Amino acid sequence: MNRNTLVSFALLSLGSLSAAAEVRLPNVLSDHAVLQRSRPIHIWGTGATQETVTVTFHGQTATATANADGNWELWLRPEEAGGPYELTVTGSQSSVPVKRTDLLIGDVWFASGQSNMEFPLKGFTGAPLLNGDKEIAASTQPKIRLLRERKRTSTVVQSDAQDTWTLCTPETAKDFSAVGYFFSRELTQEEHVPIGVIDSTWGGTPAHAWMSGEGIAYANLPSVAADAARIAIDQGRADTLKARYAAEDAALKEAGKEVPTHARLSYDHSGSWTPSTLYNGMVAPFTKFGIKGVIWYQGETDTAPERAPYYARVFPAMIQDWRRQWGQGTFPFLYVQISNFGHVNDGWGQVREAQRRTLELGQTGMAVTLDVGNHDNVHPSDKQTVAHRLAMVARESVYGEKVQGESPTFVQATQEGGTMRVWLAHATGLHSEMNPLSEFEVAGEDHKFSPAEATIDGETIVVKAAAVATPRYVRYAWNGGVDCYVYNGKGLPLGTFTSER
């Protein structure tokens, strides 16, 4: 190696070391980000070992020192809603400061779940959004910022997001969660603060994929372990079938015959059903970032017989897991009770009931959507109503408005001779277009439910069935498909419930 080559090599090496040492921020701290108001602002990143890092933001200055792995973090004092502001990060061993511009201070909501939360403004094939074209055209919202995280599974916890914040425009909003967008639009209009929404969703996924491995172990969920075992068995079968199909295809090709092009492995979910893979890839990267709360729409996949009976344990365990992972206290966790769909099985009732009972956790809220479902399509088009009801819950329970945003809620059922009386909260103005009411069932001590006739009596509902002389339990809207809806005076519907524990 001659002298010139050695010099060039040395310069390249120094350049590489310099580039590797440059101070860096994570993707979630990008231009256009919304930082959570009224709580300490977490700023973190990487740099050279023992590098001194200085951060300036809106008149504040703070310093940190990178550890042996090059990681650093610091906290800024809480700020009130406002902006846009600029953030500058300077490293003592970095050649150029890192700058982030157009940052707002406001409220950040993490929107997650499966396909009905993923459902974008442009809709899905065969499932358009209600008034989708008009909604997209009107989606320039300067006080709303969007971060749409691409799908990613991982067997290990990821530390950085794949995507960054964008302005809210027709171009960015059309691919964004419709529920997330409409929810943020209403909050921006009513609360008069900037809103940032993170869309981290994957259609057709079970709740346990969104839990950390630590959370699954902490909650001692054997049903998740059993499901993981089934997935592993199926994957083993899949690998065997892939090899067999490959051999068959090769034989067909050798014989000059047509090779099938259709998918043959209907249960291949790209790893998205494996416990913790979506938490690792699509939730963990955001747990250092300050949020106001979570909005969640999921559960359809968990109506399967092998998962539905356990959703009452899995779902609240997931909420508690996320709260532990974020380390920001009992932040609001608002969710949608899944809509009606034309399946006739207990799974839908079990999941809806599990969602109702999860309200026993503090700082939770539920939007009931039975009446905006579609018997023939699991992706109903009216996401505006879903988001509005979520926003009503948020405005009342999180922002302290007196909007009466709660649906009628089951409190207790009492036996009165041959009838059951259902007592409800938030039931002022209780009414229905159907009289008598259908979708109610009662059971005796044998726990065998029979269809019943029900009538509204003030703020209660009286239920009876000729087949059950001495009723003990009552339930409502237990099947997937539902045709009778009961509303309070604010037009909010009663959700699925059972008095059977």
CATH architecture of the largest domain: 3-Layer(aba) Sandwich
Give the end-to-end Cα distance, rounded to a whole number of Å: 80 Å
Look up the CATH topology of the largest domain. Rossmann fold
Number of strands: 21
In percent, how much strand structure appears in the residues? 15-25%
Question: How many strands, what sense, and barrel or not for the largest sheet?
Answer: 11 strands, mixed
So what's the overall shape? Answer: globular
CATH homology-level superfamily of the largest domain = SGNH hydrolase
Number of helices: 11
Query: What CATH first level of the largest domain would be assigned?
Result: Alpha Beta
Secondary-structure content class: alpha/beta
Task: Quickly count the domains.
Answer: 3
Feature tags:
four-stranded antiparallel beta sheet, globular, 21 strands, 501 residues, 11 helices, eleven-stranded mixed beta sheet, Rossmann fold
Report on this model:
Keywords: Hydrolase, Signal. It comes from Terriglobus albidus. Residues 1-21 form the signal peptide. There is one protein chain. With 501 residues, the chain is α/β, with parallel strands linked by helices. The protein contains eleven helices and 21 strands. Helix 5 crosses helix 11, helix 6 crosses helix 9 and helix 9 packs across helix 10. The longest helix is centred in the middle third of the chain and has 33 residues, at 222-254. The model is unreliable at 5-19 (pLDDT under 50).
